[in-house]
Amino acid sequence: MYLFVLKIILLLTLNFNNIYQISTKCIEEYIVNNQNYKFNLDQIYDYREDKFYINIHYVKLNNRQIASSSTLPLITIKKEKHNSHSKVIYLTFDDGPSKLTLDILKVLDEHKVKATFFVVGNKVKQYPEITKEIREKGHILALHSYSHDYKKIYSDYESFINEMEYTQNLIYDVTKYKSYIIRFPGGSYKRLNIEFYNLLKEKNYRIYDWNISCGDGIGKNKDVETIYKNATDYGTHSRIILLMHCRQSDNATLCALPKIIEFYKKEGFKFETLDKCEEDYIFPFK
Ligand SMILES: [Zn+2]
C-alpha cells in the first residue's frame, strides 16, 4: 500500500509527456475518501537510474472521468479492494538458434516452463531442425532480424522491416507458424520513434524490449553466479521480461537457468510466453 502511494507521488513528479511505456493493464478498485474509484492501472516499471514511470487513467465508478491525476487525493487512499494481479515472468532467449538451444530446451522441459525465442533469420536457415524443435516443444518463436548486423538493420526503416519479414517467412516455411512478435537487436532505445512505431504497427508487429537482463549479452567474463544474480534481481517488478541469450557461447546462461527458474517459481511467478502478453513493452522513445 505504501509502495503504491510512493509510486503515485513519483508519478506526480514526472512529466506525462515522457511516458511511453505501455504494458498489460489491470483494473483495480480503491476506496478514496469513502468513494469507490476504479483504476485502470498500467504496469509500473523502472527504466534506468531506478526511476519509476507509471501511466494511470482512472474513472469514478459512475464513469465520470476525472480531469487530471493531480485531483486524486493521495493520502486518503485507504483500502485496496483487490490488488492481487498475478506475478508473471516471460523468459526470452535472443540470438539463437544454436546447438546450445537444444540444451536450453531440455532444461525448460525438465522444469515444465515455456519461453519465447527471438531468433535470427540466418541462424534459422542454418538450423531449421532446431527451429522446428523450439516450436514442437511448445515455445514461441519471435523475430530478431535476419542478419543481426546493426549497420544493415538500422540503415533505414525499410531494411529493418525487410529483415523481420524475411525471418518471419523463414520461420513459417519451417514451422508453419507466423510470428508477429519482434525485438530490436540491441533494444529499441534510441532506435524507435513514433513514425517507425506506426510503420511497425501497420505490419501488425508487437514489440518487446525487456525489464531485466541477465547480462549475458555484455562483456566477455560471463560467470554463472553473476548471470544468476542479475537475472533474479527483480526489484519491484511483478511482470518480468527477462533477457537472456542462447548462442553457442552462452553456456553460463544454460548453467544458471535451472536456478533462475527455481528462484522465480519459489517467488510465486507464473511463466508465460509473449504471445500471451497483450501489449507492447518498449523502452521510452528517444
Ligand atoms: Zn540480439
From TrEMBL:
Source domain of life: Bacteria
Domain annotation NodB homology: ranges: 87-272
Pfam families cross-referenced by the UniProt entry: Polysacc_deac_1
Xref: CDD domains: CE4_SmPgdA_like (cd10944)
Protein name (database record): Peptidoglycan/xylan/chitin deacetylase, PgdA/CDA1 family
Protein's GO biological process: carbohydrate metabolic process
PANTHER family recorded: GLYCOSYL TRANSFERASE-RELATED, POLYSACCHARIDE DEACETYLASE YHEN-RELATED
A GO molecular-function annotation: hydrolase activity, acting on carbon-nitrogen (but not peptide) bonds
